[in-house]
Design brief:
With 728 residues, this protein is α+β, with helices and mostly antiparallel strands. Helix content is 51%, strand content 9%. The chain has a five-stranded mixed beta sheet, sandwiched between helices. It is globular, with a radius of gyration of 26 Å. The protein starts with a strand and ends with a helix.
């Protein structure tokens, strides 16, 4: 697969391939033609690679600073800024990828040493007065006023980078910003590393009789993990998210279920992997940084370029959602409390709703009401069928073709191409290439879907190469990775997914399509480099295809008989979709308000050693009033302390409003409609950050965003109410 070509439509049928050699002795090599850095990414040589990339970037920036102020131009200043850190960004992406898919002590140590270097250098750029003079001078020039719209957007982003990050501060304040950036890079990485380490450090082995109620698929997985640990005949319980979720809903043993959930809630709260001091320090530093830059809070600092541009905007949105959800939340909670009382009355146990039985009782109640258990769907979501069906949907929707390429795992000597095979970091990783219907190459991606001990939990999509014209003047095709943590086939058994796990894979593939379809020339404006509260729209929209008969028919087939999901079973799934959805929505509001409150009102919390009691005063109305208060997840809340969503966790909910609204067009046109798909591709997926997201969204739906489809999906607005509003 060519990564660099002279023409964007050149076919990929030649011998140039990405080569990623896997994790062996903590090495990770990423090779592709025509690059000076990253040709061999070895964790033991990463420091030298990053030093080289930083020196190269410094040299390019020095060249910009030598340009006389009356000779600055778009090409020698703005484009030069766009490409200055190209190799450094590439090396950083690959190191982050290595850490996520194959974490080990050596990698952690090296990355922990490298991150401050990268952070300090990147933070120093907008503080460089000589660079700022040239950018500022050009922004006021006649040529700048005559730029094309996409060029004006690139210029605006670069000017905003300087202004937002301290270009106009005095020398003392600029020096302090550099110190803060360096310290934050270490703290945020350490937070995430602690979460992973704490999760891996906890394990429990039990006998089969302790696991009554668990699905057979989870039992087999636990038995397999115990075998690997040398505990044959036993079952291993871990704090992997999938294991915890299944135990919370199905495990009959109240005491064991509580033990697991308490351990999961308390991750990184204290002990060896405690994040308490780290959280307090991150909040303090982000607040200090924001105030140095003239903002009254970190939230208002980061939100200014989003669709919702201030903390007040976010607060107003969240208040609207709360107002609409509260009546249904009260009804659902009353019903669940009554169910708990009746359920435990049969066993002479106190019929109290607790944090440790809520999900369990909710699942029991759903089964009783709908005769439906999500485990009934597992046979219809075999992983290969899911992936093939996903490909068919996007192929039909966007007029593309996805082709799997042969791979080889682990390593050889650097530079050996294995006769055109693509080298991967684990034997279960697959690689695919995407083509237009006319055969033109679009990009390539890796799929790393199965659980591994040294792999970060959750699911994500990342870009290894961002599409666009790079510093060599040539178009570089995008290369992405989608990762999940679904069960791996064991002992000849297929990997059968939950419906929710299928949604996760569709979600990440939506991000991938955003990366693949970008057509903007400038990489920093291309793909999913968009406002944070817009970036989840393409991913969340893809989840809708897991709920429609038209799309499910392409992949939801029994893994043995090949039969489609029976209509009755699907109807029960659909009917149960909004069951107790107000409770999960209120839980999401809890986390969202926690985020915006901590970063937006830091002065309220800066003297607190532990934050739970103070947060309870603010978050109590979003929470179920249990007699036994569960601990907050704040000390393992990676999204807002190490995942880049600080003050922007609301973006998931805001993007869901947009995706529910946008999908009404797909549904009105038959769900998998080529014309609607092409419009979404052209107006949302292809334009990156080159245009205003709200204006483009309004162009797609032909009006302002409508919150009602979102509220209906969450069970907080009935269709007849919606119809009455439409009549008005």
């Amino acid at each position: 697969m060519p990564i660099v070509t002279n023409a964007a439509d050149e076919s990929a049928n030649n011998n140039d391939h990405i080569i990623i050699t896997g994790i062996r002795n903590s090495t990770h090599r990423f090779c592709y033609p025509g690059r000076n850095i990253g040709n061999r990414l070895d964790v033991n040589q990463a420091t030298a690679d990053v030093d080289y990339a930083i020196n190269l970037a410094k040299s390019r920036l020095d060249d910009i600073k030598k340009i006389p102020l009356d000779q600055v131009s778009f090409s020698n200043t703005i484009l030069a800024m766009e490409y200055a850190e190209e190799e450094l960004s590439q090396a950083s992406s690959l190191l982050g990828h290595l850490d996520a898919v194959s974490n080990c002590d050596e990698t952690t140590k090296v990355i922990y040493e490298i991150l401050p270097k990268i952070s300090e250098f990147s933070a120093s750029i907008p503080l460089d007065q000589e660079l700022w003079q040239r950018v500022d001078s050009y922004s006021r020039s006649k040529e700048a006023n005559e730029l094309l719209p996409v060029q004006k957007k690139l210029l605006k982003n670069i000017v905003d980078l300087f202004v937002d990050h301290g270009a106009n501060l005095d020398a003392r304040a600029r020096a302090r910003l550099l110190e803060i950036s360096s310290e934050l890079s270490k703290l945020c990485y350490k937070f995430g590393d602690n979460v992973l380490a704490a999760r891996n450090a906890w394990e429990k082995f039990v006998t089969k009789d302790k696991l009554l109620g668990l699905p057979e698929s989870m039992m087999k997985s636990m038995a397999s993990e115990a075998d690997k640990a040398g505990r044959a005949g036993e079952y291993k319980i871990s704090l992997d998210d999938s294991c915890v979720e299944v135990c919370s809903k199905y495990l009959d043993d109240d005491d064991l279920r509580k033990e697991i959930l308490v351990a999961h809630r308390n991750l990184c709260r204290d002990g060896r992997f405690s994040n308490q001091a780290i959280v307090n320090r991150i909040l303090a530093l982000e607040d200090e940084k924001a105030r140095l830059l003239g903002n009254d809070s970190y939230s208002n600092f980061v939100l200014k370029h989003n669709m919702l541009k201030t903390k007040a905007d976010v607060d107003s949105f969240l208040a609207k959602v709360y107002e609409e959800a509260k009546p249904q939340f009260d009804k659902d909670l009353t019903a669940l409390r009554l169910y708990a009382k009746n359920f435990y009355a049969k066993t002479n146990v106190d019929g109290e709703l607790t944090p440790w039985n809520r999900a369990y009782l909710g699942q029991k109640m759903k089964t009783d009401l709908y005769g439906f258990d999500r485990e009934q769907l597992r046979p219809y979501f075999e992983i290969n069928n899911v992936m093939n069906g996903l490909f068919k949907i996007v192929e039909e929707l966007y007029g593309i073709k996805i082709i799997e390429k042969k791979t080889v795992a682990l390593g050889s000597e650097a530079g050996e191409y294995f006769n055109g095979l693509v080298q991967v970091w684990d034997e279960d990783v697959k690689y695919y290439e995407i083509f237009e219907s006319n055969g033109n190459f679009i990009g390539g991606f890796f799929a790393d879907l199965y659980q591994r001990k040294n792999k970060h939990s959750g699911a994500w999509c990342s870009g290894l190469v961002c599409g666009g014209i790079h510093s060599d003047g040539k178009w570089h095709y995008p290369v992405g990775v989608i990762c999940a943590n679904v069960p791996k086939p064991t002992q000849g058994e297929p990997s059968l997914l939950l419906h929710s796990e299928t949604e996760v894979i569709f979600h990440e593939f939506g991000h991938l399509m955003h990366l693949m379809f970008g057509k903007v020339d400038y990489p920093s404006l291309n793909g999913y480099h968009v406002a944070m509260d817009f970036v989840e729209l393409p991913s969340q929209l893809m989840e809708n295809f897991c709920w429609e008969p038209r799309s499910l028919a392409l992949f939801a087939k029994h893994h043995i008989s090949g039969e489609l999901i029976p209509a009755d079973l699907f109807n029960r799934l659909l009917a149960s979709r909004s069951f107790m959805a107000s409770l999960s929505l209120m839980g999401q509001l809890d986390l969202t308000v926690m985020d915006i409150e901590l970063y937006g009102n830091y002065a309220k919390y800066n003297s607190c050693q532990t934050l739970d009691a103070v947060l309870e005063d603010v978050l109590g109305k979003y929470r179920i009033d249990y007699r036994e208060k569960p601990p907050s997840i704040i000390y393992r809340f990676s999204h807002i302390f190490s995942g880049g969503y600080a003050s922007e966790y609301y973006s998931y909910m805001w993007s869901e409003v947009l995706d529910a609204d946008a999908f009404t067009l797909f549904k009105a046109n038959g769900v998998i409609d080529r014309a609607t798909g092409h419009l979404f591709r052209d107006k949302i997926l292809s334009v990156g950050d080159s245009v205003d997201p709200l204006e483009n969204f309004k162009f797609f739906v032909k009006r302002e965003p409508d919150i009602r489809p979102f509220l209906m999906r969450r069970g907080c607005l009935q269709p007849d109410v919606d119809e009455n509003k439409n009549k008005k």
